[in-house]
# Entry
Amino acid sequence: MLVNNVLVRPQGQNQVVVSWTSGDESAISWVFVNGQFAFGPFMAEAKARSVELTVPQNVTCKIDVHDLTSGGEESPASIEQAPLVQPVISWNKVDAAMLYRVYHTIFDTGTIESKLIDIPATARERIEIDCPIKLEGKGGRWHSFRVESVDQFGNESLNEVVPHFAVDLPPPPEFTVSRDTVTGLLTFRIL
# Structure
């Protein structure tokens, strides 16, 4: 469960104290900074909790805290969303293949298909790679990938084209920080 009321106080250069109240004393807490795991599992045996974290300098940080009450081996994922611009490309093994050739086309721009990468054949039954380029996704755009197996004589197979829709995330909401002049506490607000 994502914790909504989180207080972040500066504690020195690159240091902050993150405080929150858990809904359950037995909950296990996890903390993420900019979508990356930072701290956890944290078991305080009290509802009021706080941890000291090191954060990147001179950049805006997003901190999210999750509490799990399941008590199992489960660990949460950050709420950080990555844009859909670097998909995983996968295909099944071809026994006669010496290598696999991956091609790419952008549907709606009329670009000519181009070779992305050659991948040496392996013994694995299923081959998966991260797309080696960031796909253009402004406003949403269709891309296609074609993977061909190449035999020892350089002959390419004929396989089907696999479409992928790439889209960038919308611009982030406005973020404001204000300081209470009496207590010195910072208030973070997303508009």
Summary: The chain has two domains: 6-72+171-190, 88-166.
